[in-house]
Specification:
mainly beta; 2 helices; elongated
């Protein structure tokens, strides 16, 4: 008997399936999210690919053997993070906005560091101006990434459904 399961934790992902999705700030926002599935060419270790997502560009990267996909636009000033620095520290992958140094967890999309200054430098006067111009601190969307048999990828806003068990009776 086959059972279809919606995976909610990366620790139960099937072989060749890696990925994550950001938590939504409220149930209302979650109900408005429609499943999005995007094909992506293969991405080599340390490389990145930019694909068209539901709300703009999505950055797909392979870092330390894991795939990550996040919105490639910083919520502060809506500037691109396509070339943002990606680092792994203690097993956690982070992307840094190359315009003002805010940092986002690539697994969850959570904003770990919000910088309001210009070019990543906090300055009372500049921060005051930038707060009035830019958006408020917010997370970015992280997506699930599944590797296909041919090495290409599928990026999705929903956890993959994996069949568990033997043939149907």
């Amino acid at each position: 008997m086959k059972i279809k399961a919606l995976l909610l934790s990366s620790s139960f992902l099937a072989t060749g399936t890696q990925g994550f999705v950001a938590t939504m700030p409220c149930a209302k926002a979650f109900t408005q999210l429609r499943a999005t599935t995007i094909d992506c060419p293969a991405v080599a270790e340390g490389e990145r690919e930019i694909i068209d997502g539901p709300k703009g560009p999505v950055l797909v990267a392979k870092v330390a053997g894991s795939y990550y996909a996040v919105d490639a636009t910083c919520p502060h000033l809506n500037l691109p993070m396509k070339k943002g620095k990606i680092e792994v520290d203690g097993g956690k992958a982070t992307i840094t906005c190359n315009f003002h140094n805010s940092c986002f967890d690539m697994k969850t999309g959570k904003c770990d560091k919000w910088v309001t200054g210009a070019l990543g430098v906090e300055n009372g006067f500049v921060s005051g101006l930038m707060n009035k111009v830019g958006g408020e601190k917010s997370d970015i969307v992280a997506y699930y990434v599944t590797e296909k048999e041919d090495g290409s990828l599928t990026v999705s806003s929903e956890a993959p459904i994996v069949e568990v068990g033997g043939p149907e009776e």
